Amino acid sequence: MARTEITALFLMFVSSVLGAITTVLITGCQPPVSMVLPASIVSAAAIAPDVAAESSTNAPATDSAELKMEEFVEPETILSKGEEWPQWGGTRVRNNVPNVKNLPESWNIGKFDRRTGEWDGSKAENIRWFAELGSQTYGNPVVAGGKVFVGTNNGAGYLDRYPSSVDLGCLLAFDQKSGDFLWQHSSEKLITGRVHDWPLQGICCAPLVEGERLWFVTSRGEVRCLDTEGFYDNEDDGIVQNESARVGDLMDSGQGDDFEDSLGRLNEGKLTDALRKVLADAGSEAGDDVQIETLAPNKSWKATGTFGGVERELAIKQLGPRISIFKSLGPHDKHDADVIWVFNMMDELGVSQHNMCSCSVTSYGDLLFVNTSNGLDESHINLPAPDAPSFICMNKNTGKVLWTDQSPGSNILHGQWSSPSIEVLGGVPQVMFCGGDGILYSFRADAGKDGKPELLWQFDCNPKTSKWVLGGEGTRNNLIATPVAYNGLVYIAVGQDPEHGEGEGHLWCIDPTKRGDVSPQLAVKMEGSKRTPIAHKRIQAVEPEKGEAAVDNPNSAVVWHYSLADQNGDGEIDFEEEMHRSCGTVAIKDDVLYVADFSGLLHCLDAKGTPDGMPIVHFTYDMFAQSWGSPLIADGKVYIGDEDGDVCVFEFGPENNEPIEEINMGSSVYSTPVAANETIYISTKDKLFAIGKTDE
């Protein structure tokens, strides 16, 4: 397990990623959501996040009658206006095709000095601004309310109290016009480390934005609602008031007197120079008026006075081999996020995520849908929380859980990092969830009944004889991409964590109006002429050596399926004629579908297929580098990035099988390009670029 086991979370969407995880979010010009929040609903952050936490009481909701199903902004409005891109995929439908005009087809990022980071913009072209991100970035940009939001790690070190040497999951907010840094939400790493919160991965999902409210999932397994204005409105909004935040720590190095001396002086009501330096380094320099009150000798103190020019009260605690200082966040802390409510899925639902929690959430009216990321432990064999839900529906205003579902059960293959999508299909609002067993599930998108949803259909995206093998050597795959709804049909590709390497893939077009098990095949036990259905199995659904077989499903919802196609008609299947594993989400416009696979191929197909269920492949293009993200279709062009840092730009259309430009971004592009208001936004491994036509 090298760089990440979870980076495919990414989602890209990935979200690349998930599509990369990609990606983007939602807001409108309407007033913020009305908030009526009883204090019992949500847990606030504890003074020491890994030491203690107040718990919330999110029992199955009883307030479903109060829910409103009126959407904040209709998807069609967001797509047609092209002014904002407020969630991963722009809307709950997740099709990355904004109606944005006047986009450049070429640009030049200038030159960055590898040692100093200094930018030479003398040769830059069509770069409106750039901003520093962390050292590894998998989150997709979201554009809403005059701001751009991106998930990353803390490599940029925007907050004095968290220098770049401190590993965090960060959600950053920038000014859309200037690129100026506004605020940061900081998620400290879980003490369980890479088991639940892999180092340096940061926030891999994209947030959802509606007006002045933002929802996202932290790497710590929390669903959080934030105020997009932060503390710039000079208010501490929501039920999370005076949220405790770490200022700094004085560690016991065992090689000097600073630690013991500081404990003794605190008991005497004094701050040592060592503690004053900790405060100064964190931007909270202590004034001469500071007073110390001992609450518990050698354990706990209260400091009041001027810190960083602000009159406030700090909490000081000895926590093992460190003296930790905490403050309460408020309107003076402009560069910190203003939290509205928090729901901790690990504490409240018993979830145990594999390596990281990541999901680009989406909404339908007042309903918020979340993949919990429940998964295996570090052995890649044991499922620590088999009874924990994998998919939940919440009241987005309060954070109260309305229903939970654990459909994959004990059949989770690895982790669960995909993001849900929603569309009204066949007259029924459906929310689609990518299960960790490789099965796509569709539920009725409503508040459920008695804490449970209504399952409409399920579709196994892997051949029944495919086999899961540790490390990616097998043929059974996960679902990392996000399902996309287009013209009444649903599209999804299979894949695995990129760390598992390349492998065979499948792209499906599904009829969502059918009900029940609508998989291409059914698993049965053969006993003479008798066929007995068998339950789904985690490693291999059908084992022929045990007298089991895969038979055609008369209730199959397959419209067409793409795994390979002999495009040149030579009777052989070349590398370029195969669909490989993919983290990417499809983008479709005018019945032309684009999707990238992890082997670096961009596939262009007819979204309708043939009447007999065969795919129509227009072309494939080899980018010669792995692609984690998803395509952007906008202004008559198609944009797609790769791990080498190149963004290929194509003229839109099935006949345009060669890029018109291939532009290097200086570092890997694991995310998905997004567009809003005549601007392309691309997050590379370490920077965010706003790309648009300039006057120069």
Overview features:
five-stranded mixed sheet; PQQ-binding-like beta-propeller repeat protein; mainly beta; 696 residues; five-stranded antiparallel sheet; disordered N terminus; PQQ_b-propeller_rpt; Quinoprotein_ADH-like_sf; PQQ_rpt_dom
The helical percent reads under 10%
Q: Could you describe the largest sheet, including whether it forms a barrel?
A: 5 strands, antiparallel
Average pLDDT for all residues: 91
Low-confidence stretches: 1-62
Strand percent estimate: 25-35%
Strand order of the largest sheet: 11-15-14-13-12
How many DSSP helices? Answer: 4
Number of strands: 43
The radius of gyration over CA amounts to 25 Å
The span between the termini is 47 Å
Structural class call reads mainly beta
Shape: globular
Protein name: PQQ-binding-like beta-propeller repeat protein
InterPro entries: PQQ_b-propeller_rpt, PQQ_rpt_dom, Quinoprotein_ADH-like_sf, WD40/YVTN_repeat-like_dom_sf
Domain Pyrrolo-quinoline quinone repeat: 549-651
